[in-house]
TrEMBL record:
Taxonomy, superkingdom: Bacteria
Protein name stated in the entry: Histidine phosphatase family protein
Keywords from the named record: Hydrolase
Annotated Gene3D superfamilies: Phosphoglycerate mutase-like
Top-level EC class as recorded in UniProt: hydrolase
PANTHER family for this protein: FRUCTOSE-2,6-BISPHOSPHATASE TIGAR
PROSITE patterns, per the entry: PG_MUTASE (PS00175)
Organism: Massilimicrobiota timonensis
Length: 194
């Protein structure tokens, strides 16, 4: 039986706005982030979800609670957290090397207490597989982070399919089908807000 996973990035945060590296550290949603979450709620209103999950980070929990309400139960999972950037946490994005630079992007952060990309892919993949293997999980919404979602996407398909078509902005939602232990990327939902 085909199941559906909707993997969403949280709304804009103060650190996003101030261009700060935000992995395991946290910052609150901005007014824009709240509006983005409300737009996502409208975008998802016709989907009947049976289970909800969130990263333990406040920005993800707050985003999900705007969508489902504070009284709807959901599960918080550390495995859905963003990549750990080690000593770079909370620092300016200007210190974050670009993938195409002369630095080995993936090798930098572990030397400063952070994670490798393959570690993020492994924990996200294992976590989402375990979630979707539950018998009563037909339509699942999980709120996570830009880098973590993108890492998971890279294990399913070429992530350039998203990068080259508008990127993975705040409150975008990746839709996957899940069947027989395998994920298949379907599309990306881009909630519109004003």
């Amino acid at each position: 039986m085909v199941k559906h996973l909707y993997l969403m990035r949280h709304g804009e945060t103060l650190f996003n706005k101030r261009r700060k590296i935000q992995g395991w550290c946290d910052s609150p949603l901005t007014k824009t982030g709240i509006l983005q979450a409300k737009a996502a709620k409208k975008c998802l209103k016709d989907i009947s979800f049976d289970h909800y999950y969130s990263s333990t980070s406040e920005r993800c929990c707050d985003t999900l609670e705007i969508i489902i309400g504070q009284d709807t139960p959901y599960k918080r999972l550390k495995q859905l957290k963003e990549r750990n950037f080690g000593d770079f946490e909370g620092e300016s994005e200007d210190l974050n090397p670009k993938r195409w630079s002369e630095f080995n992007y993936d090798d930098l952060f572990p030397h400063y207490g952070g994670e490798y990309t393959h570690d993020v892919v492994e924990r996200m993949s294992k976590c989402l597989l375990e979630i979707m293997e539950n018998d009563d999980h037909q339509n699942v919404l999980a709120v996570s982070h830009g880098g973590a979602c993108y890492s998971f996407l890279s294990s399913v398909t070429d992530p350039n399919i998203v990068r080259d078509n508008g990127g993975f902005t705040n409150c975008c939602i990746l839709h996957f089908e899940y069947n027989d232990g395998k994920f298949k990327y379907i599309d990306i939902l881009r909630p519109e807000f004003s």
